[in-house]
Amino acid sequence: MPTPTVRRLQLGNELRHLRERTGLTLEEAGKAIERSQAVMSRLEHGVTGLRQRDLRALVEFYQERVIDNDAVDVEWYLSLNKGADQRGHWSGYRAAYAKYFRMAVDLEADASTINWYEVEIVPGLLQTEEYVRALFTEAGTQSASESLIQARLERRTVLVSHQAPCVTFVLSESCIKRVQGSPAVMQGQIRYLLDISEQENVRMHILPFRSRAAGNARYQFTHYVIPAAGKASPLEFVYTESYRAGEYLDDPDSISSYKQLWGRLLGSALDTVDTRNYLIHAQSSYSE
C-alpha cells in the first residue's frame, strides 16, 4: 500500500485530472465545497487533504459536469483518500528523519523508477553502516542517535523489497575518491556497491573527473517516477538538497530540464561494465 504522503499526492493528481475534464477553474471548483482557490491548489498538489464527506461532495460535483462520456467512480476516489492522513507514520526511529526529507523517503518507497545523481558522497540508499557512522563523525555529530543511524540504514531495504524500483545511479568519481572514515571503511563500502550492482533492478555508473558533463551538474539530484493510481500520468518529482533544506520540483519545465541533464550525465558516465572494473580497481587501491 502506498505511503500516506504518496496517497495524498496521487489523490491530488487524480482530482486535478478530473477537474480538467470538467473545464472548471480552481476557484469555481472551490466554491462547490466552500474552499478558496489556494486551498484547492494545495489539495491538488497533495499538501492538504479533505474529509470524506467533503471529498464526496467535490467528486459528485465534478461527476455532474464532466465533458467526456467516461464514468466517474466516486467510491474509488474515497478509497484513495483512506489512510492519506494516517498518523504515527513518523513515530519511533523514523521520526529521526528531518521533516524536509520525509517526503523523499516516501517517494523512495513508492517509486517505480529512481534516477540518482550524486556528487560528493555515496547515496544514502547505498551506504554501509560503517560509512554512515564515519559521515556523522566527520560532520562533528559523533553523538548522532542510534535511531538516526537505524533510519538511514532502513532505507536500503527499498532496493531489495518485493516491488523494488528500477534504480540508476550516476556517481561522480569524488564519491569513491573522497575518503570517509578510513581505507577499511571505503573498502567495505565499495564491496557493497559491487554486490548491490549485481541486482537486476540496479544500474550503477561512475562519472569520471574528465567528463565535461560534470561541469553542468555540481549539485546532487534525484528523479522519482511514481505510478499513477488511475488514468492520469505518473507522478514525477525531482528532489534537490542543500545543507539544511530540501526542495521538491514537479513543474513540467523543471522535470524536462533535469531529464535532459540526466541524459547528458548518463551519456558521459562509464557503462556498467567499465564502472564495475573501476570499482574493483578502487577497492584494491584502498588496501595498498
Characterise the protein shown here.
By secondary structure, the protein is of the alpha/beta class. It folds into 2 domains: 4-81, 434 Repressor (Amino-terminal Domain) (Orthogonal Bundle); 92-285, Endonuclease, Chain A, CATH 3.30.870. Helices cover 45% and strands 12% of the residues. The chain has 12 helices and 6 strands. Helix 2 crosses helix 3 (37-44) and helix 4 runs antiparallel to helix 5 (74-81). The chain starts with a helix and ends with a helix.
Structure summarized in a few sentences:
This protein is of the alpha/beta class and 288 residues long. Helices cover 45% and strands 12% of the residues.
Radius of gyration: 22 Å
The biggest sheet, with number of strands, parallel, antiparallel or mixed sense and barrel status, is: 6 strands, mixed
Low-confidence stretches: none
Helix-strand makeup class: alpha/beta
User: CATH architecture of the largest domain, please?
Assistant: 2-Layer Sandwich
**Domain tally:** 2
Distance between the termini: 48 Å
